[in-house]
């Protein structure tokens, strides 16, 4: 049996590398909440929330792996992103431990994507208000 994976086993890439991988057919798995995703997201992204908003606050989505397997195959090449990189790193660890082989964490998340001008003609300032934990 293979040893359990941890955060040190995750390949982290910058937003420009992520954009390049997406341009050659990798899938973008956005693990932000549905509310965050609906405000704005990377074009063509798949949304499987890693955390859910409940009355008690944010809790880990107990169905994350089963929902991910409904939209991604274990041999798909994935770029995983969230808002700033924390949730996506944890999601990558879970995906690797579940047998996914080609998983990359996008450093800085969607916030960095927007700050780098990769959100296209969408007004960056409007997107920043949607990102709760971003420095101004």
UniProtKB/TrEMBL annotation:
SUPFAM superfamilies: Rhodanese/Cell cycle control phosphatase. It comes from the Eukaryota. Residues 22-122 form the Rhodanese domain. It holds the Pfam family Rhodanese. GO terms for molecular function: catalytic activity. This is Rhodanese domain-containing protein. It comes from Cannabis sativa.
């Amino acid at each position: 049996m293979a040893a359990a994976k941890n955060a040190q086993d995750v390949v982290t890439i910058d937003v420009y590398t992520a954009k390049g991988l997406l341009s050659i057919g990798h899938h973008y798995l956005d693990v932000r909440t549905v509310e965050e995703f609906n405000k704005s997201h990377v074009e063509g992204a798949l949304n499987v929330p890693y955390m859910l908003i409940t009355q008690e606050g944010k809790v880990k989505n107990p169905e994350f792996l089963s929902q991910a397997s409904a939209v991604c195959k274990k041999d798909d090449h994935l770029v995983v992103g969230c808002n700033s990189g924390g949730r996506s790193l944890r999601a990558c660890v879970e995906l690797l431990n579940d047998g996914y082989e080609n998983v990359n964490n996008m450093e800085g998340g969607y916030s960095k994507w927007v700050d780098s001008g990769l959100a296209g003609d969408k007004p960056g300032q409007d997107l920043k208000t949607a990102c709760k934990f971003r420095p101004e």
